[in-house]
Amino acid sequence: MSASGRNIRQADGLLMNIHDPSTGPVLPKDGERNVLITSALPYVNNVPHLGNIIGSTLSADVFARYCRTLNVPTLYICGTDEYGTATETKALEEGVTPLELCTKFHQLHTEVYKWFEIGFDKWGRTSTPEHTKITQEVYLSLHKNNLFRLETSDQTYCEDDKLFLADRFVEGTCPQCGYDDARGDQCDKCSLTFSSPTELLNPRCKRNKAHKLSVRPSTHACVRLDLLQPRLEEWLQKARVKGHWGSNAVITAQGEIVEPRMLGEGLRPSAVTRDLRWGVEVPKTGNEEEDKAMDGKVIYVWFDAPIGYPSITATYTDQWEKWWKNPDNVDLYQFMGKDNVYFHTVLFPSMLIGTGQPWTMLHNISSTQYLNYEDTKFSKSRNVGVFGNNAQETGQPASVWRYYLLSQRPENNDSSFLWSKFIAANNNELLANLGNFVNRVVKFVNAKYSSVVPGPEGFAGGEAVAEASGSDAAATQLDADFISDINARLTEYRQSMEDTKLRNGLTVGMALSARGNQYLQDNSLDNALLANQPERCGRVLLNAINLIYLLSVVFHPFMPTTSEGILRQLNAPARSLPEKFSIDILPGHTLGKAEYLFKKIDNVNGEQEKKWQKQFGGDAHVAEQVNPAGPQGHPEGGAVPKVKDIAVTASKKAEHEARKAAAAKNKKAAAAEAEKNKSPAEKELEAKVQAQGALVASIRKGQAEGDADAEQIKAKELKAELAELRKKLKEASIA
Ligand SMILES: [Zn+2]
Ligand SMILES: [Zn+2]
């Protein structure tokens, strides 16, 4: 036994290997299972809402943590997607450079994910030299393989902004119904869609109606998805079998292609360049005519964004190709919302196939449906509900948020975020089930055994088996049932997690804890058991403590901080996920002190629930009044704050209050100062104006005699006189 009072079974792979970054990057090992994980890159120009978090980053984090509990080399990569029209235009509007804007927003995202305890191995961004280099290399490989075609078409150009306008920045008159505020891609009144804003009558620049627009031809490079489709389909059929895909928006589990764009005539060549400045420059191909046509253009954001996965990895290690060009040794798992499936199963794989290089391709795709808020939508452009940066304003810990969101993970259908269920999840599940089990056992051992784990001396541990408990056959049977139930659930847990059915994994985890509570009840753990059957009592506690050790690893992916709290109480190091329930904390081991894992949320008469509903919008009506949908809302996410409003270090609310207080103070001081400096003539005249105004009011209310209209004229004359006097005083003070 060590000085720390620990007595833990020694076995290869029993503990979790925790990577020490000072020893270098995590790299895959040849001939072993290696897991590369990505979550959809959040668009930098917005605040992630809970729907984004549950679908992408949180889900991927849970899976990455699960893989680490298997001691499998695991790399989880994500970052902000920064290029494109929306960023460039917003930066223009706010008078900052796109890079400045991205840097601030990147920081905002960083803080949200940090609060949610998302454990990226590398959290990066796409505006890096590595990203430019790899994107241009992919482009040039496709070019070399004759997979581009140049197409010229008319585009709307703003002579004042000196740029081609993306569809969403053009407005005009609908040629069909005459509606004056039709958007560049669609008329909101008659729903006619336009293939180009040049179809609008009287097109205007959305930034400024006075700007002069013209139509200019522009040439773009289109990637030949039509030529790539046969190879893409061949890959899809193999990948879905190898990675055990379920049905998704592109291909069913039976291999039937259902993506409309791939049916009929199939995929069309698709433009991958844009007339923008904020993006990856189109590289020179060596073809003079073509390079001239592409001069000053950038690569379109859907083409460069997925290359962010390898390029962010390249900012983590210069050996990034060991992860990304190693299809035989690396399994790539990608997490995203359902609206991103096409990009990850069609566009990105087509690009990679087109390079002719041995890229690590998608192994398993995990996509989620939408998470709705109360009775309205999260996942649309409206700013409704709780956003990533408000979760902490509730004062509830990240573990509870993670647990609740994951327990509602919309795996097969849309699901709903409800405050009532959030509170119930904490009080009735986490606290009553898991918290209670851990607390009851640790407290009992603290109090009755001076924290020393009971059990037969010199017991070697290992796989749990029901040992004959003397002549007590009933007790032996209780243990046998307990062990077999735990093992059955452990197997189900592993299977669910391997299939990225994270919600079920969590449910099974809670069932394991509930089985522990039942075991204590079946054995009537109490003082009487301790007094009358001390040996039996010790055995029950030894089993219970080792179930708690198992729970620490089962819940590690979902609630890392809670898992740490359990380990602290057990005085044990983080363990790996075993295949079978085993006795690894041995008799004689000293536990830590009992502490509460969860805190009850008081909700008398549903008051807390109502409070949060009010704070964050409880129904669509209220929420829309508070935060109307804006044209600046990115289709993926919530309202977009102004760069200057992003306070990344201090609390936003506190800063706002401080600003307000300072402004009020200044105003008061200014008023007092002005009062002090007034001349007697000004003060006298002010008094007259006030008295005359009161007289007019009294007459109108019938409280005084007189001709209201005549007195009103007098009041106006007095006011004019006062204004004249003030003007003179001001001129005098300036002179
Ligand atoms: Zn119309
Ligand atoms: Zn303009």
CATH architecture of the domain at 416-583: Orthogonal Bundle
Strand portion, in percent?
A: 5-15%
Total number of beta strands: 19
Main structural class: alpha/beta
Radius of gyration: 33 Å
Strand order of the largest sheet: 3-2-1-13-14
Q: Name the CATH superfamily assignment of the domain at 416-583.
A: Isoleucyl-tRNA Synthetase, Domain 1
Treating each run of at least 4 consecutive H or I residues as one helix, how many helices? 22
The ligands found in this model are: zinc ion
Question: Which spans have pLDDT < 50 for at least 5 consecutive residues?
Answer: 378-382, 618-639
Class of the domain at 416-583 in CATH? Answer: Mainly Alpha
Rounded to the nearest angstrom, the distance between the terminal CA atoms is 90 Å
CATH topology of the domain at 416-583: Isoleucyl-tRNA Synthetase, Domain 1
Average per-residue pLDDT, rounded, comes to 88
> Which bin fits the share of residues in helices?
40-55%
Largest sheet: 5 strands, parallel
| Shape label | flat
Region (Disordered): 662-688
Pfam families: Anticodon_3, tRNA-synt_1g
GO molecular function, one term: ATP binding
Biased composition (Basic and acidic residues): 673-687
